Every structure is written in C-alpha cells, then in structure tokens.
Amino acid sequence: MKAVGFYRYLPVTDPDAFVDLDLPRPTPQGRDILVAVKAVSVNPVDTKVRAPKDKQEPDGRVIGYDASGIVEAVGPEVTLFKPGDEVYYAGDITRTGTNQEFHLVDERIVGCKPRSLSFAEAAALPLTAITAYESFFDRLRIARDGADRGQSILIIGGAGGVGSIGIQLAKQAGLIVIATASRPETIEWVRALGADHVVDHRGSLVEQVRAAGFRYVDHIAIFNDMRHWDAAVELIRPQGGIVSIDDASLPTPMAGMKVKAASFHWEYMFARAMHQTPDMIEQHRLLSHVAELIDAGRLRTTLAQVLTPINAANLREAHRRVEAGQMRGKIVLEGWGN
Fold it and tell me: Could you name the domain of life of the organism this protein comes from (predicted)?
C-alpha cells in the first residue's frame, strides 16, 4: 500500500523530509478497525513530531493525526463499526500514523463521519474538535447544554484549527466569545465563525479585552502558546479557569492564580488513547456528537485548503504552511492518485 513517511528528522525544506513508501497492508485485531484513508489533515503536532533531531528511523516512520475514510475490515472484538461505514478520527500518537492508504485505529476513538461533509471537509475536524471539546466541557467543566449561557470565554489563537472549531462549540454552549486574530483575513474568519469580539494578540490583550467591556472573563483557552500567560492570569475572573494545549516550556508563575483561587488545566487529546483510560470511548461519543451538530447545520467544517494527492511533495508543502504560523483553519490532503 502507499504511504508517506521519513527515515530522518529533517527540516521541511529538505526533499527527504518526507518520502513516498510502499508498505504491507495491516490486518485488524482486537478492537481495531482497518480504515481505507481518503483524506488526512496536518496539525501543529505533526510538525513538532517531525521536527529536526539527531535520530533515525531504519524502517521508516509514518505519522499523521487526522483522517477520514471508509472501514475496510474490523477486528474480532469490534462492536461499533462494520465494513463500509464512513468514519473520521484523530488516531493515537503512540501508533503508526494516518498518512497511509490503510490505517489501523481503535474503534473507541473513532466517530461516524458527518454525512453532509466530503471526506476532505471531515478530515479537517477530528483532532481540533476533540481538543476544543475536551478543553471546554471536560477540563473547564463548561455546560454543553447551555446552562452557562452568557458566560464569557477568551480564545487565544482563535483563527487556528483548534480555535476555529472552539469558537463554534463555545457559541453552541451559549458563551460570549472573545477571540484573538491579527490580520484582516483572520479577523474576518473568526467573526464569520461567530466570535462576538476580536482582539489582536500582537497588542495588549488586557487593554483590549477591558476596552471591550470585560474586567474579567469567566474562561480562557490558550490555543497557541504560553506567551500570553501573564495576560491570561490578569484577565481570568476569581475562581475562573484557564486551559492550555501548549508545551510547558515557558514559565507559568502561579501566584496570581492562587490569590484568585483560579484553576489551570492541561488538555492533551491523545491522553485517553495513550494511557488506555477507562473512558476512552468518550472520544467516539464526542466525535459522533460533533457530526450530528454538523449535519444539523449548527457547526461547519474548518477546512481552508486542499492539496491532492496525498504524497511526499504535498505533505512537505502542508508542513511548510503549518510551520509558517499563518494558517487560517485547516489544510487537508486528499486522494492517493494512480
């Protein structure tokens, strides 16, 4: 089967950063399903995993953490899917990735693909939808059913992949959304997704949020990096909560959080699969719920760009665009060519 991988961890400008591979087709066991992959998406985590380092993969490594496709075969313990079902999912960072024609994945982290979306449109969603959903409803304990309607949330990184679906999920929960964006096209993007207020992350977040009428905000989601930690601590309301998906590489002083009795949460969407937690199946449920919202017209895909086919050259280009840090929404690769 066709696949795209690498043997060395190289800069994206190197022609060998990705190479086209021919690999054996895997066979599902246990609760695994075998998916005929139709489209994949690229996320910042892909570029971090592939980032240059002094290491080699003698047998080649395939990464990729978003996919949509059709169930080809199922393991003997599978109960949620059957061959022919259309699915979408974000995979497991501890296993071989989605950048291959046929991919094995545990059924408990797979959702039913939205019927109203193409495979490309669906592939843009899983990792970011899981991340935003878990950030809001599992970590910050925001009520999904609207019981917290009227509360405010600041989404830092509003135009990115996670922010783009996060704005929509927050609006579905009835929240007032303040999103960051800095360029005309990203400002327009986040407003179209439902942001009530837009602030420029290149300026003072504290000054801009307060100028918009908020002394404090009820919730803060840091969906890019921790450079804005001090502003977040200043803006969070007493007993409010902050969630972050960034690496813990920058200082995060907690004194300001303590005097507000505010809470801080890490979100890592791979945690359930990585640790085989008893509630792994929650990712199946939440992806299926997101699909229902999409098919009901209450959420939209965050797809912004499509490259075709799925091959080494296009995957290098997708990684280059993500690494440039100027993405609006998501970039997807579709089809395997002839």
Answer: Bacteria
